[in-house]
Write a structure and sequence with these properties.
By secondary structure, this protein is of the alpha/beta class. It has three domains: 139 residues, Alpha-D-Glucose-1,6-Bisphosphate, subunit A, domain 3 (Alpha-D-Glucose-1,6-Bisphosphate, Chain A, domain 3); 205 residues, Alpha-D-Glucose-1,6-Bisphosphate, Chain A, domain 3, CATH 3.40.120.10; 85 residues, Alpha-D-phosphohexomutase, C-terminal domain (TATA-Binding Protein), CATH 3.30.310. The chain contains 14 helices and 19 strands. Strand 16 and strand 17 form a beta hairpin. Helix 5 packs across helix 6 and helix 8 packs parallel to helix 9. It binds magnesium ion (MG). The site of magnesium ion (MG) has 6 residues, from loops.
């Protein structure tokens, strides 16, 4: 059977891989999947192709007998929020997240507002590829209408955080969907907001939509020159967050993740979920805050599933996609931004102090060539022999590649590349010598 969905929904180059016909058939497939029809919420980011895909999806959904509420341009987490809020059966977000403007994508959400799991996606693929779609008779075709969910979403997020005073915040939305939420939420929280790249523009003229340190240099300069307390940045659909401290420096994603996981554990007592590739500083901070770390596969859906299964109080990836389950099970950039300010407020310290108080351990990366066809066999043998190769000590985790954690917290992750003929090795330790030695041993193991 063919595949539509990748690690984060459907993604592709517009009018090349991702054509209106695909969106039309997907809409009809989803409508076929949703029993007894029902309401579907549909949102989009401001890409030049989003209206085109919206038109096709609406058409497919209506023809399958579903009603559609279009919420227009909105952050991905606002679509997630809208699904249970409007008692919808499912949600659809049209976005390619941080990808360049010539891409777009489609992400589906279940009736609880959580992104579709791989199992749910497979059911849609079955219908789509088998052509077993079901069009409604003329008198049961659905109805489409608009819904303005943003004021309620903004109210919900702002009411989830409380601050003892206002802060000066620079927000850089990359001209993406976050511009319609984050500046307003910060204002609602009593902050003084300076909004950069906050006009919607599908060409992303201000900066590339991925909030990497290179793309946030301008934000850093502005934060420093305006004497702001913090700079916040999103990707194109605002499910992710990055932060700049008051000195204008981008805070490393691992540090920010560790700080936030510990903050959530301190407030709500419980477990924090993160992925196998996140730094050991997450364990150090969460443990000293009295919590426990649960590791899961890479990807925001895996994190959401693990948060749900473990009843965790927080889930986050080092890419800045964070879940606060007291609000919902969707990575939420505007909420994450508000939580960063709440953390600064509670600590009564500038963000630079918080970040500089965390050790920075060296991470070493390497790769070993391995043909795609042999990856599975090699990984199986690596899993079986890893313990012996590392002198029989440590804890082995095989949920996503093979991760070995040693007693001092140092770890090595061996994971096949999803797209290239390589097996990748990542290692983190308190000294670069030790990290290098772990990578060397892992290379030897893969070589055998
Ligand atoms: Mg995104």
């Amino acid at each position: 059977m063919g595949r539509l969905f990748g690690t984060s929904g459907i993604r592709g180059m517009v009018n090349v891989d991702l054509k209106p016909e695909l969106a039309l058939d997907l809409g009809l497939s989803l409508a076929t999947h949703v029993e007894n029809s029902g309401l579907i919420v549909l949102g989009k980011d401001p890409r030049t192709s989003s209206d085109m895909l919206e038109g096709s999806l609406v058409s497919g959904l209506l023809s399958g007998g579903c009603d559609v509420k279009k919420i227009g341009v909105a952050p991905t987490p606002a679509v997630s929020f809208a699904v249970p809020h409007l008692c919808a059966k499912a949600g659809i977000m049209i976005t390619a997240s941080h990808n360049p403007p010539e891409y777009n994508g489609i992400k589906l959400f279940g009736n609880d507002g959580m992104a579709f799991t791989p199992d749910q996606e497979e059911k849609i693929e079955e219908i789509y590829f088998s052509g077993r779609t079901r069009a409604a008779p003329w008198d049961r075709i659905g109805e489409a209408g608009d819904a303005n969910i943003l004021p309620e979403y903004i109210k919900k997020i702002a009411s989830s955080v409380s601050l003892s005073r206002g802060y000066k915040v620079v927000v850089d939305c990359a001209c993406g969907a976050g511009a319609l939420a984050t500046p307003f939420i910060m204002r609602e929280l009593g902050c003084k907001v300076i909004a950069l790249n906050s006009q919607l523009d599908g060409f992303f003229p201000g900066r590339a939509p991925e909030p990497t340190p290179e793309n946030l240099q301008e934000l850093g300069k502005i934060v420093k020159s305006l004497g702001a307390d913090v700079g916040l940045a999103h990707d194109g659909d605002a499910d992710r967050i990055a932060a700049v401290d008051e000195k204008g420096r981008v805070v490393g994603w691992d540090k920010l993740l560790a700080l936030m996981a510990a903050h959530a554990v301190e407030r709500n007592k419980g477990k924090a979920v993160t992925t196998v590739d996140a730094s050991m500083i997450v364990d150090e901070l969460v443990t000293s805050a009295g919590g426990k770390v649960v590791r899961t596969r890479v990807g925001d859906v895996a994190v959401a599933q693990a948060v749900k299964a473990n009843q965790a109080v927080f889930g986050g990836e080092p890419s800045g996609a964070w879940i606060f389950p007291e609000v919902h099970l969707c990575p939420d950039g505007p909420l994450a931004g508000a939580k960063i300010i709440e953390m600064i407020d509670e600590a009564a310290k500038p963000l630079s102090n918080l970040a500089d108080g965390i050790p920075e351990y060296p991470i070493v990366r390497a790769k070993v060539r391995c043909p795609n066809a042999r990856k599975a066999t090699v990984m199986k043998k690596v899993a079986a022999r890893v313990k012996r190769a590392f002198y029989g000590v440590g804890e082995v985790l095989t949920i996503d590649g093979v991760r070995l954690t040693l007693e001092d917290g140092a770890w090595v992750l061996i994971r096949p590349s999803g797209t290239e003929p390589y097996i990748r090795i990542t290692s983190e330790a308190k000294s670069v010598e030790r990290a290098n030695a772990l990578v060397k041993d892992a290379k030897k193991l893969i070589g055998r």
